Amino acid sequence: MGRENRRSSELRRSMPLLPMSTVMQLTELSARQIRYYEEHDLIQPHRTEGNRRMFSLNDVDTLLDIKDMLEQGVNMAGIKKVFDMKKNPAVLAAQAKQELSDSELRKVLREEMKMAQGQQKPSLRQGDLSRFYQ
Length: 134
What we know:
Layout: H1 3-13, E1 18-19, H2 20-27, H3 31-39, E2 46-47, E3 53-55, H4 57-71, H5 76-87, H6 89-97, H7 102-118, H8 126-129
Antiparallel strand pairs: 1-3, 2-3
């Protein structure tokens, strides 16, 4: 996809088109939950002249990401950290450069777990990821 197409696609995805009721149906979140995530600056919906929230497709994607993380047991502090990392220029550059495949990610995690076991210390991720290696 050319640069213009990417820019045009991103512009469409960021357009505030969806009212709260539609976003609630799409995400299966309550209005209260959505407002809570807004209060924590995880989403920034556009406000109409009548002060109604209007959401973009990017906002819906963000809400679905938050919902997935909560279902996986990540708390709000963890979710905020993930979103802060996503905004970090170094992380963005690494993502743009190359996405890790699932097999590469598993290899890195296995190596980290081996090193941690050799030092008799739990890996930082071991508690969270042990469910994948049972």
